[in-house]
Amino acid sequence: MENRIKALFGIRYPLVQGGMVWCAGWELAAAVSNAGGLGLIGSGSMSAEELRRQIKACRAATKEPFGVNVPLMNPRAESQLEVVLEEGVDIVFTSAGDPSRYTPHLKAENVRVCHVVSSSRFAMKAVRAGVDAVVAEGFEAGGHNGREETTSMVLIPAVCRAVDIPVIAAGGIATGRQMLAAFALGAEGVQMGTRFVASREASCHVNFKRKVLELGEGDTMLALKSLQPVRLVKNEFFEEINWAETHGVKAEELKKILGQGRSKKGMFEGDLEQGELEIGEVAALVDEIKSAGEIVRDIVSEFEIELNRMKTLHL
Amino acid sequence: MENRIKALFGIRYPLVQGGMVWCAGWELAAAVSNAGGLGLIGSGSMSAEELRRQIKACRAATKEPFGVNVPLMNPRAESQLEVVLEEGVDIVFTSAGDPSRYTPHLKAENVRVCHVVSSSRFAMKAVRAGVDAVVAEGFEAGGHNGREETTSMVLIPAVCRAVDIPVIAAGGIATGRQMLAAFALGAEGVQMGTRFVASREASCHVNFKRKVLELGEGDTMLALKSLQPVRLVKNEFFEEINWAETHGVKAEELKKILGQGRSKKGMFEGDLEQGELEIGEVAALVDEIKSAGEIVRDIVSEFEIELNRMKTLHL
User: Fold this and answer.
1) How far is A262 from chain B (nearest CA, A)?
2) In this structure, are B221 and B142 located in the same domain?
3) Same-domain pairing of B304 and B173
4) pLDDT for the residue numbered A260
5) Chain A within 8 Å of B288 (Cβ-Cβ)?
6) What percent of chain A has pLDDT over 70?
7) Does A137 touch chain B (CB under 8 A)?
8) Domain assignment of residue A197, given as a range
9) Residue range B77-86: average pLDDT?
10) Gap from A192 CA to chain B (nearest CA, Å)
11) For position A50, which CATH number holds?
12) Which of A28, A89, B44, B129 has the maximal Cβ count within 10 Å?
């Protein structure tokens, strides 16, 4: 069976590392790509010039394909995409925004474009915009999230039914077993964010990495539903935001509480109570900080063991 | 590979039909059991004497094993369990309550007991209570739901890791592909509610069955989080409840709006706007009313086709 995600990106394993804000710098992206997955630099926290520096460093650290994740709602998205083109990066994952805005231009420059969606409707919109693949991201995922709250178990088959281009599953996936489940649902690749936050190469603060190991079921929750939903660790910052939101505080005030610095304070500076900590539900299954290469190898190995187990299955 | 769910219940396929309130009468339970799955009578909407009548009718309609689902928070739970024992039913699924209250007594009477849980912690509590199996029910499921909002993709492996007894996966499962994904995650059986609501034998109103076919992604939402979370169709009743809840209306007032009759009005009498309609996210993938036997056969067939597809998979 031909795997279109491996073919599209020219990679050994159809395993993409999420471009998480404050976590996915060049060290992580290069390590994942060197291990046979697809590493992504997460540009969300970077100025255009910082992104340029990161791309150069990544290229120096790996000969394998890597890409850049660009959240389209970021005011810096346009200048970041210019840097991406100037530096000759030919794989871009876009998220949180309208895929029709930049996809035609990127495609004209021979960039492979993949867009993150939370519904079949958005997946079809991405297809019309001309993307090469979509990431179907379920409710359990960390970071920004869809309003419809469709979970991976339902979203993956729904998106696979709606579009003919290859689908990468994201949300709730951190193990080889979960990767296999995503393939059973029709995905041809997976994207993992949370698992790689707890990696040696992630650029976030070690306090945040250790926090991920401690998290159990129910320790994250979708917040900011009136503004833009995001899955957060339930810490003091979350309680503050959540109280404000459930007591009718308006969008403008919420934005003030959020400020610009709270995600940096949490994930980069390691303030586990006053900072904003974005992470997926699957943190409950992540118990060890490993190197990114080890993570890729362990997932592939578990996938193969579980696939062999499935082969002995019958009803 | 031995399947402990098949062995536990003496059934052909490890496919359990949910005991949904107003939907799961004896006709549905008998049809599922006759097709090789495990049918359950949903006692939630029944008086003890109505339950007795349903059990007798089910027994007359099938020679195969069947069971009864008893929501433990129901004030009638104790009298229902008495009827179950008097009528010699030896399979009971309990939900929404403390498993330690009745499990020892049921086990002493040689009843096989399975308890529905929404977390690993509750699963371990059920094991201590002595149950034979647990249903791990994710956030995407219809009806009453956990507070931690853990989805099936994360919950199934988490519960499988936490307990040694067999795990039945529920929430977001209506197809053979999804059943296979649940097995990849470690489950040995699945429970499907939503899929069987859209069956000819379901005892709910045909308006509700047809409504299930129309539902798309995002058309259900978890409501009543301050009282007891329940996944509902977003109709006028939902908007009323949701407005009240997000505007600080207290629990006692919410209970009044709910009344006793709103779920009957919706699911049994077919009032699609003023009634309470409980259904899972996976309704988005259910497009046809079929007989329960056809549903079981189609799921088993798709499971086998997809399993064969998986056998050709390699990384």
Assistant:
1) 24
2) no
3) yes
4) 67
5) no
6) 99
7) no
8) 4-204
9) 97
10) 13
11) 3.20.20.70
12) A28
Question: Is the residue at A247 inside a domain?
Answer: no
Q: Which residue of B has its CA nearest to A171?
A: B153
Residue B2 in contact with partner chain A when CB distance is under 8 A: no
Rounded to two decimals, the ipTM of the complex is 0.97
Q: Is residue A215 part of a domain?
A: no
In this predicted structure, what is the pLDDT of residue A1? Answer: 66
Interfacial B residues in 22-61 facing A (CB < 8 Å): none
Which of B119, B121, B307 is closest, CB to CB, to A313?
Answer: B307
What is the number of structural domains in chain B? 2
Question: Three-state SS across chain A?
Answer: CCCHHHHHHCCCCCEEECCCCCCCCHHHHHHHHHCCCEEEEEHHHCCHHHHHHHHHHHHHHCCCCEEEEEECCCCCHHHHHHHHHHCCCCEEEEECCCCCCCHHHHHHCCCEEEEEECCHHHHHHHHHHCCCEEEEECCCCCEECCCCCCCHHHHHHHHHHHCCCCEEEECCCCCHHHHHHHHHCCCCEEEECHHHHCECCCCCCHHHHHHHHHCCCCCEEEECCCCCCEEEECCHHHHHHHHHHHCCCCHHHHHHHHCCCHHHHHHHCCCCCCCCCECCHHHHHCCCCECHHHHHHHHHHHHHHHHHHHHCCCC
Report the pLDDT value the prediction gives residue B1, as an integer from 0 to 100. 66
Whether the predicted pLDDT of A66 surpasses 80: yes
User: pLDDT tens digits, residue range A91-131?
Assistant: 999 998 999 999 999 999 999 999 999 999 999 999 999 99
Interface of A with B in 67-96 (CB under 8 A): none
